[in-house]
Design brief:
353 residues; alpha+beta; Rossmann fold; ten-stranded mixed beta sheet; six-stranded mixed beta sheet; 7 helices; 21 strands; globular
Length: 353
């Protein structure tokens, strides 16, 4: 679907906050249960939006889905000097403020500003990105655009925002948590290659009452050392993926999951089991070890400091207390972990307790 263009109308003296449609590119995408409308004058920013959100399943949590407006502006590209009274700026003057709006929000930003204004009450966000950020497309997408999408979808719908992964099959989902280095991304990669449905690798949103989990399964990020257990053909496939550099300095392959070889969950999955990944080796013991309810909730809370401070945490924790929980220890090969997770998805929980 091509972005629809809204043609200019009027001048800035009659519309100081540019609240009327003025040559905007406009597309709609259903993400995280919400109907998002993205508008921008910038083809570069629209390409980033499409790179992030084209080709994803249309997850729905309510009918009709909540509508959210997200306006994107590229700093330094806005034409603030249009209309009567416009004049050339001299070399010793600062740049003028550009007046901007999205439904319910008014803003002024200079050409070099990077600003993110979000309102769950208005169901809207206004993102102004300095033009120099185009040199860092991953950080622009992840640090600004996805920040607004994730924040508004969670707060408008009352979802629990988790730093966790979710894989599943049919309607059943497994919530995967784990400290850094526990192998969460590696486990998700092997689940993906094994044909399990993916909801998200690291940013998950769960309804506290129904435990339905949704996410944006666009990319999977894995370190080079995670590839050693893959076949030569799988390694060649991943080596063709671009690499991104996290702010920590770590470089990872960014694998596009919207390829035919992967399966994205067509609808939100219900969390049926909590799985805490451990860096400890199973040795001669079982990979899956049951966890008591109290310990499981303590681990969940410790792994989610942000979510634990959100209004819906008490209801979420109460629902999570009612489902089984396991620790997944490392085996000799990640495929053993995938086989254990598949056993949980088949409902063989009682036999493991």
């Amino acid at each position: 679907m091509r972005a629809r263009i809204i043609r200019p109308s009027g001048d800035i003296s009659a519309d100081p906050f540019r609240e009327r449609a003025e040559g905007l590119l406009r597309i709609h995408r259903q993400l995280l249960g919400c109907a998002f409308e993205f508008t921008t004058e910038s083809p570069e920013l629209m390409r980033l939006v499409r790179w992030a959100y084209d080709g994803l399943p249309r997850h729905r949590l309510s009918a009709p889905p909540a509508r959210i407006a997200l306006r994107l502006v590229l700093g330094g590209r806005a034409k603030a000097g249009r209309g009567r009274g416009a004049r050339m700026r001299t070399a010793d003057e600062p740049g003028p403020l550009t007046m901007l709006s999205v439904p319910g929000l008014l803003c002024g930003a200079s050409g070099c500003s990077t600003v993110a204004v979000m309102s769950a009450a208005q169901r809207a966000a206004l993102i102004v990105a300095a033009s120099e950020l185009l040199r860092y497309p991953y950080h622009l997408r992840y640090g600004l655009i996805e920040l607004a999408v994730f924040t508004l979808a969670a707060r408008v719908q009352g979802l629990m925002p988790l730093h966790a992964a979710c894989v599943g099959r049919r309607s059943r989902g497994l919530l995967l948590i784990g400290d850094s280095g526990a192998g969460k991304s590696t486990a998700v990669l092997h689940c993906a290659l094994r044909g399990l449905e993916l909801v998200s690798e690291d940013s998950l949103f769960v309804d506290p009452q129904s435990l339905l989990a949704t996410g944006v399964a666009n990319f999977l990020h894995v370190r080079r050392e995670s590839l050693r257990f893959l076949s030569p053909a799988e390694q060649r496939f991943i080596h063709r993926a671009p690499t991104i550099r996290r702010r920590s300095g770590v470089r990872k392959f960014e694998i596009d999951l919207r390829q035919r070889r992967f399966r994205l969950a067509p609808r939100p999955l219900e969390i049926t089991v909590l799985v805490a990944l451990s860096a400890s080796a199973a040795g001669s013991g079982p990979l899956l070890v049951p966890i008591g309810r109290g310990e499981a909730l303590a681990r969940l809370r410790a792994s989610q400091p942000y979510a634990a401070g959100q209004p819906g945490w008490v209801d979420f924790a109460k629902r999570m207390r009612a489902i089984p929980a396991f620790e997944l220890r490392r085996g000799g090969h990640p495929r053993e972990s995938v086989a254990a997770l598949e056993q949980l998805l088949r409902g063989n929980v009682a036999a493991l307790r």
